[in-house]
Amino acid sequence: MSGRGNQNRRYNKGHRNGKDGKHHGRGPSNNKRDHKKKTIEDYVFYLGSAKQASDYERTADYVINHIAKEFDYGLNIASALKELQPADKTSWEPKLKYSTATDADQKEAENRQHTMMYQSQLNAYIKKSEMYTANLVKAYALLWERCSQGLKNKIESRKDYAKIMNDPIALLKAIREHVLNFQDDKFCMTIIIEALLTLVHTKQKEGESLQDYTRRFRIALEVYKSHTSGDDQAGPSNLRKYISGLTGYDEKDLKIVTEMSGKERMTF
User: Fold this and answer.
1) Domain identity same for 63 and 162
2) What is the pLDDT of residues 156-175, one digit of tens each?
3) How far apart are CA 108 and CA 97, in angstroms?
4) Most buried residue, 108, 115, 141, 146, by most Cβ within 10 Å?
5) Using H for helix, E for strand and C for coil, what is the string for 63-115?
6) Cβ proximity of 264 and 239 under 8 Å
7) How much of the chain exceeds pLDDT 90, in percent?
8) Domain-embedded: residue 245
């Protein structure tokens, strides 16, 4: 009895201490996954499907916010990229004020003060302007780095590539144009239908803000429109390419072009 009792006591002790090979404590659960915070390396502009095109604005927003936070005087170039318009540097230039005092001594004192203030503001303006110019080059390099190789090839093959080089605003416009007007080896109508289905099925997700949903929907709409509208630097729209391949199409006959284009657009 005593031998069997000692054996049971040893088993119970080992069981409590986890010596039976099983885990009985409250250690870290394997079901919990570490969510790594995304960095700039996780955001890339791709050529691809309509679904990937809808991610354009999310990637652009992250890159622009990164520029605003990490670049010296980055807010100015970030604002220009967001608006896709160069900054109006003339609006930064300070203006020298003059005293309106009638007393000569007071007028002289105020003018000296205005001159000192103007000189300080002028130095700040020069610094701000110089940093904006320097940030143009840095922003271009960062945007180019965030392009996939396929997208780089597309941009480099453009007729206006020489004008795009070292201009981050022109580059971002080109990126947007190619991503939203994605071209691949699929049949033109397949691309249009995929874009239409993506638009139709763009619904607000659980927990998604109205602002984020509206942004996704707007991008999906722009993607669809880009395939059924006119031409641009990225090339003819997919609907235009489809129509030009139909029997009886003659690009030299304006009446036929108008009739066939109108008929096919009515389909959508």
Assistant:
1) yes
2) 998 889 999 999 999 998 89
3) 12
4) 146
5) HHHHHHHHCCCHHHHHHHHHHCCCCCHHHCCCCCCCCCCCCHHHHHHHHHHHH
6) yes
7) 38
8) yes
Phi, psi (degrees; rounded to nearest 5) at 167 = -115, 100
- Give the per-residue pLDDT at 12: 54
Whether residue 68 is predicted with pLDDT greater than 80 in this model: the reply is yes
Structural domain of residue 265, as residue ranges? 185-268
Q: What is the pLDDT of residue 236?
A: 44
Mean pLDDT of 96-108: 89
Euclidean distance between CA atoms 243 and 188, whole angstroms: 10
Percent of the chain with pLDDT over 70: 64
Beta bridge partners of 144: none
Amino acid at residue number 137 = V
Domain match, 58 and 159 both? yes
Q: CA–CA separation, 174 vs 157, rounded Å?
A: 11
> Bridge partners of 45?
147
